[in-house]
Amino acid sequence: MFTIYNNGSVGFRSTADNLYNLKNVDESSESRFKPDDEIMNDLSNKKKNSQNSDESLNAYKEIANMDLSEPVYQVKDIMTKDVMCIDSQSTIQEAYTLLKENKISQIPILSFGRKILGLINKKIILNLLMDDIENTKEILNRKLEDIFLPEIITTDPISDIRRVAKVMIDFKLDAIPIVDEDDILLGIVSKTDILKAVSHLPKLQLWS
Which residues pair with 187 in a beta bridge? Predict the structure, then answer.
């Protein structure tokens, strides 16, 4: 399941297939593996019954043309849980300082209760400054909650790693936040996390 947020408001929440239909993005490559998000959600709902869970998992693998002996890896298995983030009450200057000092590309912005509001990076900050070059000091002192942030795509912790990796490639995302059903940030998955998963999980093949 994938969600699009516009400054903290949910603008879309559905499967990856519907995400592609919404955004009109051509998939970068055809693959035999085309996970169905609805099946994955169904799996999570049946975890209390191990027999039903096993049956659903095997059905999912058959639809995805997977070897029945091959495990299904979810993003919760590889996501970075200790995420550096910033409060929406902080200023643009504080966000820039955090990005620079920690040498990171982007930071999730959280509102009250750790709910995701958006992501901020140096490019966004630079664009804000260039739009009003004569008032840079005033802009840097603005609170993050007061600026318009680009929409972000997130996913839930039980999404299949393969589907998430494909969405990241097709939508040119460096990272994707992981949130629960209450929009609370649980972690983040970056390109580096995907590469580590491929190298450390021998049975994980992204485009099998």
Answer: 178
Q: Which helix (H) or strand (E) holds 154?
A: strand 152-155
Domains in the chain (CATH in brackets) are: 2-80+152-200 (3.90.1280.20), 86-146 (3.10.580.10)
> Which residues have CB under 8 Å from 127's CB, separation 6+?
none
pLDDT digits (tens, 9 = 90+) for 68-110: 456 668 899 899 999 999 999 999 999 999 999 999 889 999 9
Question: In sequence order, what are the residues at sequence separation of 6 or more whose Cβ sits closer than 8 angstroms to the Cβ of residue 85?
Answer: 107, 108, 109, 110, 114, 185
Q: What share of the chain in percent tops pLDDT 90? A: 49
Distance of alpha carbon 18 from alpha carbon 75, whole angstroms: 20
